[in-house]
Amino acid sequence: MALLVGDIGGTKTVLALAHFEHRQVRLSDECRYASEAFDGLEAVIARFVEESGARFDGAGLAVAGPVVDDRCLATNLPWELDARRVSECFRLRRAWLLNDLEAVAWGIPALEPSQLAELQPGRQTPGNACVVAAGTGLGQAGLFWDGRMHHPFATEGGHCDFAPADAREAALLAYLQPRLGGHVSWERLVSGMGIGHLYDFLRQCHGGAHAPAVARAIDEDGDLAAAVADTAAAGACPVCVEAMDLFASLYGREAGNAALKHMALGGVYLGGGIAPRHLHLLRGGSFLRGFLHKGRMGPLMQQMPVRVILEHRAPLFGAARYVAQAAARH
């Protein structure tokens, strides 16, 4: 029987069935739901079953947040997830919860070269790797290389303290601290919400009116990050252009921080929804300048391959692969 797999985030929840064929994972019945429209994971799964008629006897569910003892308080969603409760509710043999970036890490070996975009070739040598994914939040995971294979593991590195590198960034930190309760993490800058924060800060610095698309997003409580990014891409607003350039630089800086902490000679992978939608931005120079600007470690950074994950289903493939190995252990 098939396995239910899911990618549960603050903006959307994606569910699908995973089938194992000749040691490969095939997905079917993929459905996407707005997470905020439901009061919990069980309600989303029930809707999926109702709409698809899907049958499954196990589940692997990737969630944006720290998973401890098969439970998780989602970081950017007011849900408490419990694998045992899911199992009982849908009469499954077992359900597994794992961090969404750990799931992406598990999914990387299932990707074809065409599902990746290269930002820096590096040396192409085996070694540890890491994943840094900007979307609703900023997820991070590591892949330990044992000399034969990678072992993915979850982290919450996106919640580490932001450290300014110049006077403008020091002013940015001072601007955000009182607005965010004192603690400013990298996630508050390198994410969809981060683009909004960067735009607000720079507009306060420079003054002037909002660009029309940005004004509409603010008035209609729409997607401010998308409006800023699209306006910047069109070159229609200097503040938007500066905000996205700063975003790319900060993304590169934090990806470089993660790469150093993991000694990621095996590769740095950029996941999440922002990187594949804005490849032109990441290839514009600011990202790699931020990534490489590590003082005496600059030559080491040049050896690390940097790739963007283009396949949005990587967490689903990864959740299926995780369950397969977990079930084999038991």
Structural class: alpha/beta
CATH architecture of the largest domain: 3-Layer(aba) Sandwich
> Could you give the distance between the termini?
18 Å
Structural domain tally? 2
Count of helical stretches: 13
The CATH class of the largest domain: Alpha Beta
Shape: globular
Largest sheet: 6 strands, mixed
Keywords: ATP-binding, Cytoplasm, Glycolysis, Kinase, Nucleotide-binding, Transferase
Subcellular location: Cytoplasm
Binding site for ATP: 6-11
Pfam families: Glucokinase
Notes on the structure:
The protein is an alpha/beta fold and 330 residues long. It has 2 domains: 2-106 and 313-328, ATPase, nucleotide binding domain (Nucleotidyltransferase, domain 5); 113-309, 3-Layer(aba) Sandwich (Hexokinase, domain 1), CATH 3.40.367.20. 40% of the residues lie in helices and 25% in strands. The chain has 13 helices and 14 strands. The chain has helices spanning 41-52, 83-90, 100-107, 167-176, 192-206, 212-219, 224-233, 238-262, 274-277, 279-282, 286-292, 298-302, 314-329, and strands spanning 2-8, 12-21, 24-34, 56-63, 67-68, 71-73, 80-82, 94-99, 116-120, 129-134, 138-145, 150-155, 268-271, 306-309. The strands form 3 sheets. It has a 6-stranded mixed β-sheet with strand order 9-14-13-10-11-12, with helices on both faces. β10 and β11 form a beta hairpin. The two termini are 18 Å apart. The mean pLDDT is 95.
